[in-house]
Amino acid sequence: MKKWFNFGYTLVFLLIFSSICLFYSDDFTRALSSRPPLFPTNQPFGIEKCQKWTEQVRDFSLFREKAAEKVTVLMYHRILEEGEIDPSIHYDKHGQLYDTIVLKSAFEEQMQFLHDHDYTTLTVKEFLLFMQGKIEVPRKSVLLTFDDGFKDNFIEAYPIMKKYQFTAANFLVTGFVSKREDKFSSSKHQYFSLSDVGKSCDVFDFQSHTYNFHQRNKQGTAYLESKAPDEIRDDLSVSLTNLSGRNRSIAYPYGAYNQNTIDVVKELGFELAFTVEYNDARPGMALYEIPRKAVYPDDTLHDFKEKINFY
């Protein structure tokens, strides 16, 4: 009798424990991994309404001598408060801030400079039409872009840009977006939550940075170069599902691509693709190889002025 009692007790315990594990499996997964589970492949972010502004095109009514012949596309990744910098996370092996980090104080100084000197931040659609030679834009025009979708873009950059009424393209690794606030992630691996995306979609034009192909293989080659076209197509298609088909532009992770990549991007209807080649963008350039100028942590305001051709 005792034997059967112990057996029954153990069985009940296992059933209860299994139920608890199943109910809290998402939390356990988050707690035991450095990155939360990927965003569902079949679920849109639900931001269609708040992204309608990205389809608008302004009438700049320019005199020809004031029209731009080229536009600087600026590339940012992370914007961090100086007090949040952790040498064990944010410094490279040489003891320098990673190139992908810009201090909040420097970013605010740069945005204030653009504002005080009457720069226009273009939307991706306006930039596309400029590159196609269909519209003229002011000589003092820039396109601001952010890669990866780190949470600090929402916490630090978004309020500054909103203050100056600026907009930017934000290229999300859509699989990294968390469905809820992620209390388990460290700042090293913290990305936009779905709530963050919804709250900042009046400033950020959310575009694709792949679904989960911001990776390299064992040989160090980026997935967009090393994977088969069908695999690239599948990954990018999922990112477009998350973005409700928003396929105006894509930024290649690491700036890595080849002709297979371009062919898939074209097939999926993307109109623009951004690289990390350091140059200004001019009408007539290849639309799937648009250059961008990265902003670095050690850039002075003088460096920034040179990037945007202020001199």
Automatic annotation (TrEMBL):
Principal location class: secreted
PROSITE patterns referenced in this protein's UniProt entry, alphabetically: NODB
Residue ranges constituting the NodB homology domain according to the UniProt record: 140-311
Protein keywords: Signal
Pfam families from the UniProt entry: Polysacc_deac_1
Location(s) in or outside the cell: Secreted
Domain of life of the source: Bacteria
Protein name: Polysaccharide deacetylase family protein
Originating organism: Sediminibacillus dalangtanensis
Lineage: Bacteria, Bacillati, Bacillota, Bacilli, Bacillales
